[in-house]
C-alpha cells in the first residue's frame, strides 16, 4: 500500500456513515374525521414513523400520507412558513406544522395533532376557512383613497412606514383567531387576524378608510369583544404583537387619532 492509499483510507468515512443524520421513531396521534363515513365521527389514530433530527411535524405527516395512509388529509403549500396554510393544533398549541421541529417536542410520547379550533372541520385537519376570510374581507384589507389618481407614487417616510410594519407580516394562517376563547364561543367575533389586518391599513398614512374600518370594528362583534388574553400573540408564527395591535385599534377608536 502506498502512502497515498493509507491517507485516503484514514480520511474517508465509509459510505454508510457519510453525512448520516441520526434517526428516531416518532408517534403522531392525529385527530381524524371522515365526512363520508357511514357514521361520521371524529376519532384519534396513531402512526409511528422514522424521522430525522432536522424533520418538522410536516415531514412526519408527509411520510404518513405518502407511505402509510394516503387518505390522511391536511393543507400545506410552501412548507416554509410563508403561505399560512398548515396551521394546526400541535400538543395543544396552535402552530405551523412546517415550522415545528420534532426535536423541539417531547417525542417520548405521542405528539397530538388536531385541527385548529372554532372553525367547522371538513376532513381530518382541514377546516372551513370561509368564516375567517369573511371577517377579513369585511375590514376592507386594501388601500382606500379618494380624489384624482396621483401623478406620482404616494410617498411615505420611513417613520410612517414603521408605524404599521408589524402588522404587514400577517400570512393569514388563522393561528391567532382560532386560539381565541372568545372566537370559540362566538364565531361571529371578527377575531384577531381581521383586526391585525385592519390595523395594517388604519395606521397607513396613505390610506383614507381608517374611520370606516373603525366604524366596522366598533360593532358588538368587533374589538370590544377582545378580553386581552394574549393567546393570539403567543400563537402567531410571525411573531406579530397581535394583542398590542388590537389595543392600538381600541385606542384609535376612542381618541380618533391614527
Ligand atoms: S396575525 Fe399571526 S397568527 Fe394571526 S393570521 Fe396573521 S400570521 Fe397568523
Ligand atoms: S406550508 Fe406554508 S406556512 Fe406552512
Relevant terms:
258 residues; alpha+beta; Ubiquitin-like (UB roll); Fumarate Reductase Iron-sulfur Protein, Chain B, domain 2; 2 domains; five-stranded mixed β-sheet; two-stranded antiparallel sheet; 9 helices; 7 strands; 14% strand; disordered N terminus; binds iron/sulfur cluster; binds FE2/S2 (inorganic) cluster
Note the topology.
Elements: H1 3-11, E1 23-32, E2 43-52, H2 57-68, E3 87-90, E4 93-96, E5 111-114, E6 121-123, E7 126-127, H3 130-138, H4 158-162, H5 181-185, H6 192-202, H7 210-217, H8 231-235, H9 242-255
Parallel strand pairs: 1-5
Antiparallel strand pairs: 1-2, 3-4, 3-5, 6-7
Helix pairs in contact: 3-6, 6-7, 6-9
The structure holds iron/sulfur cluster and FE2/S2 (inorganic) cluster.
Residues 76-79, 81-86, 96, 98 line the site of FE2/S2 (inorganic) cluster.
Describe the model.
With 258 residues, the chain is α+β, with helices and mostly antiparallel strands. It has two domains: 23-127, Beta-grasp domain (Ubiquitin-like (UB roll), Roll), CATH 3.10.20.30; 130-143 and 161-255, Alpha-helical ferredoxin (Fumarate Reductase Iron-sulfur Protein, Chain B, domain 2, Orthogonal Bundle), CATH 1.10.1060.10. The chain is 30% helix and 14% strand. It is built from nine helices and seven strands; from the N terminus they run H-E-E-H-E-E-E-E-E-H-H-H-H-H-H-H. The protein has helices at 3-11, 57-68, 130-138, 158-162, 181-185, 192-202, 210-217, 231-235, 242-255; strands spanning 23-32, 43-52, 87-90, 93-96, 111-114, 121-123, 126-127. It has a five-stranded mixed sheet, covered by helices on one side. Strand 3 and strand 4 form a beta hairpin. Helix 3 runs parallel beside helix 6, helix 6 (192-202) packs antiparallel against helix 7 (210-217) and helix 6 crosses helix 9 (242-255). The longest helix has 14 residues, at 242-255. The chain is elongated, with a radius of gyration of 24 Å. Residues 1-13 have low confidence and may be disordered. FE2/S2 (inorganic) cluster binds at residues 76-79, 81-86, 96, 98.
Amino acid at each position: 500500500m502506498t502512502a497515498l492509499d493509507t491517507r485516503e483510507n484514514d480520511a474517508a468515512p465509509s459510505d454508510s456513515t457519510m453525512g448520516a443524520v441520526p434517526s428516531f421513531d416518532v408517534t403522531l396521534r392525529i385527530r381524524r374525521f371522515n365526512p363520508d363515513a357511514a357514521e361520521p365521527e371524529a376519532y384519534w389514530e396513531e402512526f409511528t414513523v422514522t424521522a430525522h433530527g432536522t424533520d418538522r411535524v410536516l415531514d412526519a405527516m408527509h411520510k404518513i400520507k405518502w407511505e402509510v395512509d394516503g387518505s390522511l388529509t391536511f393543507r400545506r403549500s410552501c412548507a416554509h412558513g410563508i403561505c399560512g396554510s398548515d396551521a394546526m393544533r400541535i400538543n395543544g398549541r396552535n402552530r405551523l406544522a412546517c415550522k415545528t421541529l420534532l426535536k423541539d417536542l417531547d417525542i417520548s410520547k405521542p405528539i397530538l395533532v388536531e385541527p385548529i379550533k372554532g372553525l367547522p372541520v371538513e376532513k381530518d385537519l382541514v377546516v372551513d376557512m370561509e368564516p375567517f376570510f369573511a371577517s377579513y374581507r369585511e375590514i376592507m384589507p386594501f388601500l382606500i383613497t379618494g380624489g384624482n389618481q396621483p401623478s406620482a407614487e404616494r410617498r411615505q417616510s420611513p417613520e410612517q412606514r414603521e408605524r404599521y410594519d408589524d402588522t404587514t407580516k400577517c400570512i393569514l394562517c388563522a393561528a391567532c383567531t382560532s386560539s381565541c376563547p372568545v372566537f370559540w364561543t362566538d364565531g361571529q367575533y371578527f377575531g384577531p387576524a381581521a383586526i391585525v389586518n385592519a390595523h395594517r391599513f388604519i395606521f397607513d398614512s396613505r390610506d383614507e378608510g381608517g374611520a370606516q374600518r373603525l366604524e366596522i370594528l366598533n360593532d358588538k362583534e368587533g374589538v370590544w369583544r377582545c378580553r386581552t388574553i394574549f393567546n393570539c400573540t403567543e400563537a402567531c408564527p410571525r411573531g406579530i404583537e397581535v394583542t398590542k395591535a388590537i389595543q392600538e385599534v381600541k385606542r384609535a377608536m376612542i381618541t380618533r387619532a391614527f
